[in-house]
Amino acid sequence: MRRTISLLAAVLAVSITASWLPAQDLDARITPPSALADHAFRFPRGALIAHALGGIDGHTYTNSVEALQHNLEIGARYFEVDLSFTADGDLVCFHTGHEKHVGLDRPVSQVSTAEFLKHRYDGLYTLMDLETLLRIVDGYPGVYIITDTKNDFPTSLEKIVQVAEAVDPALLRRIVPQFYTSDQWLEVAWLEALHGSFATVIFTLYRTNIGDDELLQVVTARNVPVVTMSRDRYNEGLVKRLAAVHVDSFVHTVNGLDDVSAYLRRGVRGLYTDWFFSWGTGGPPGPAPAPRGPVHRALPVRRSVP
């Protein structure tokens, strides 16, 4: 029901926006998308995505300010972040189910944003909301965010767009939304029609039991550029079939250079990892891009556990 309401709202918004357009432009603006738009951005071969903003000091899943800054400093360009709603309807960088790690005795969805932000992950790492994350990333032009939403997908995606546009509308072109079921591409397509293109889009398979044949039909018919699969879901034949229709494959979560190298040799475009390595099939990526403003370097970075 919520997805239907969301789509109807998108149609209404397009209709209102288009009401003042010349007649020849009207049909193009209100025609439902039949597939995702083409995306100019493509992950480079050997791309490594820092899972949950990357590990730090032996800790994973922190989605913290310190993890982001640490992995930026060692060369990471692509960051996957877990996003969950608070009781206030704000998206925060947090993986549901990890409440004990931040000292909460109830789900984050029942906690106010202000209360959530008072805590630290494992008592050490600074928590943040989506707006803070995007304000940091806005200072690093070469950095991209891959979203992993933990709540209602259309509502989460709309909130991501809202927050990004409030920080800097150009950030949409550096956000990569993941969708989870074979019909959710339409939510992405509507938002791109209304607000402009994301960097690219990923169909991640960990919440679906879709078979290989059906998956190939979906990505071909809907112009899906990237598919992510777990290590258990991976099979070399599927990667080859996806490559044959110009769809890139990623695998999560892979730690250790030997495993990274093995997957890349088998045709995978890139990997999600807890431990970012300044390494890839093309060699070290070099230093992280310089920030545009000094405010971002003023954020605390904890290099070791006291």
Order of helices and strands: HHEHEEHEEHEHEHEHEHEHE
Distance between the termini: 49 Å
Which residue ranges are poorly predicted, with pLDDT under 50 across at least 5 consecutive positions?
10-28, 279-288, 293-306
Task: Assign the CATH superfamily.
Answer: Phosphatidylinositol (PI) phosphodiesterase
The beta-strand count equals 11
What's the Cα radius of gyration?
19 Å
CATH fold-type name: TIM Barrel
Proportion of beta-strand residues: 15-25%
CATH class: Alpha Beta
CATH architecture tag? Alpha-Beta Barrel
Characterize the main sheet.
Answer: 8 strands, parallel, barrel
What strand order characterises the main sheet?
Answer: 1-2-6-7-8-9-10-11
Overall pLDDT, averaged? 86
Basic shape: globular
Number of helices: 10
**How many domains make up the 3D coordinates?**
1
